[in-house]
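Moderator note: this is an archived Q&A kept for reference. The question asked for a predicted structure of one protein chain; the sequence and the answer are reproduced below.
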Amino acid sequence: MQIRPTMKVVTDDVLTRITNCGKIHRKNITSHTVDVSKTLTFSVAPLIDQTTGTNERYIFEGPAKFDGIEVKSDIKGTVEFMRIDEGFNVSVQNMEIKVGLNCEKCLKPISQTVKIAHIEKNFLLHEPEKINDLNDLYLVETKHMTIDLTEALRQEIILHFPAVQVCSTGCKGICPKCGTDLNKKKCKCKIETEEDTSHKPLAGLKKLLK
């Protein structure tokens, strides 16, 4: 999948313009382009010297790449970075992405839209002395003061895969013996179901006594 090198983000900004009539204050939506270099990377440099509770909010939509996930659409959502004592609280809301999966019954490729209402993580400026779970440790890249959301979002997307991945509710699957796609044609294999064996509790006794 070709990944474009930039992602467009939108942030609320209060613009002050000086004119001959004096100061004009207006609230405007300004568009910024951030080089994500195939990752969802955001700069938090403007917030590093701000007081606790200061935040910035972005609306993002663009290409993304995640290891182990077949991405079928752009990713979109809202992210808010808030300054906390240890670093930054990151809140992602209304995230949506379409991914490629395989039907559990017939193995046919299918597309599923993954929607996540809310994700919240803390990105720390320094690694703590005591770490309870390495998988839940996220650090700010302090050299350039950036936060890469790629791994955090990748884990959440996988956790939100549908519990049942089927192409349709009526999918018949494939024959476990000959591999025939039963949605297209029938096979002559006789498949003994669990229900069949439950009515013959001594069916395997003869083999065991040999």
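Archived answer notes: Confidence is low (pLDDT under 50) at residues 1-8, 12-37.
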